[in-house]
């Protein structure tokens, strides 16, 4: 089968099947072999690995994955792509194609069946409209994850990697950094895709932590505190958190926790590190418990 990373081969297969791009599915297919090689290099796939691919499209990246991995499962929502994938991947025996919505798939079950519960690698050129739900869904499902190497919108990659006090820092940065170590691999211009997206793209690798870098007594509360702190970015931390109905403490009680940490009463959430958020959520948890 001809390599699809070459634009002429992609055009030929699309024409053969009279494929019509579905904008609502975020379909921007890769047509650049350098970028495909970069993704593969960053993902570090070996013949030992089971890989989950999200949104194989016409199978461009999937061909590379099948060549290099032990086994691949690819989840594609668009049934119009399945006959194409059956042709472009016909030379491979190590692929399982699932015509499903990744947000509804039981990834834990796939990981258990295909990889005996050992950490899996996820590789994808993601549909940008659901980047955050996909990434958070993977982390929150607690599927054992070795790494996630994905193409995302450039701004989203910058938010994932952002440090405290910067404009990009927010709930996504903290959530990603709680579960993984983000590492930007390469920026990718629109002309590497067909059709060209309106935004810049970035390949990012998220290497899963063996255990979280901070100890939060109540993980759910930690994320409630983080989300509430960034919901009203311009408010002080104490005001922001006391306005959040899910955190059942008064403004004074929250201010007491902030003071106990040695922070100024006017501190804003956007300057706190992940470990400070963990400390704060533990203090809040203690206070709620003692009520
Ligand atoms: N991997 C291909 C490539 O690099 O050329 C295609 C990438 S394209 C950016 C995103 C793919 O995700 C499309 O094939 C699209 O149909 C698929 N997709 C969109 N939403 C999805 C969902 N909820 N579940 C599974 N696949 C989805």
Features:
291 residues, alpha/beta, Rossmann fold, 2 domains, 7-stranded mixed sheet, two-stranded antiparallel sheet, 41% helix, binds S-adenosylmethionine
The parts where pLDDT drops under 50 for at least 5 residues are: none
CATH topology of the largest domain: Rossmann fold
Bound compounds, each kind once, are: S-adenosylmethionine
- Helical proportion, percent range: 40-55%
How many DSSP H or I helices?
A: 12
Rg, Cα atoms, Å: 21 Å
Strand content: 15-25%
Q: Structural class, judged by helices and strands?
A: alpha/beta
How many structurally independent domains? 2
Strand order of the largest sheet: 4-3-2-5-6-9-7
CATH architecture of the largest domain: 3-Layer(aba) Sandwich
pLDDT average, as an integer?
A: 95
Main pleated-sheet profile:
7 strands, mixed
Element pattern in H and E: HEHEHEHEHEHEHHEEEHHHH
Global geometry: elongated
Instruction: Just give the CATH class of the largest domain.
Output: Alpha Beta
Write a brief caption for the model.
With 291 residues, this protein is α/β, with parallel strands linked by helices.
Describe this structure in words.
- The chain has 291 residues and is an alpha/beta fold.
- The protein folds into two domains: 7-208, Vaccinia Virus protein VP39 (Rossmann fold), CATH 3.40.50.150; 219-289, Helicase, Ruva Protein, domain 3 (Orthogonal Bundle).
- The chain has helices spanning 7-16, 33-43, 60-68, 82-88, 107-115, 131-140, 154-161, 171-179, 219-231, 237-242, 251-260, 274-289; strands at residues 29-30, 50-54, 71-75, 95-98, 120-125, 145-153, 180-188, 193-194, 201-208.
- A seven-stranded mixed sheet has the order 4-3-2-5-6-9-7, with helices on both faces.
- The protein is elongated.
- The model has no long low-confidence stretch (mean pLDDT 95).
- Bound molecules: S-adenosylmethionine (SAM).
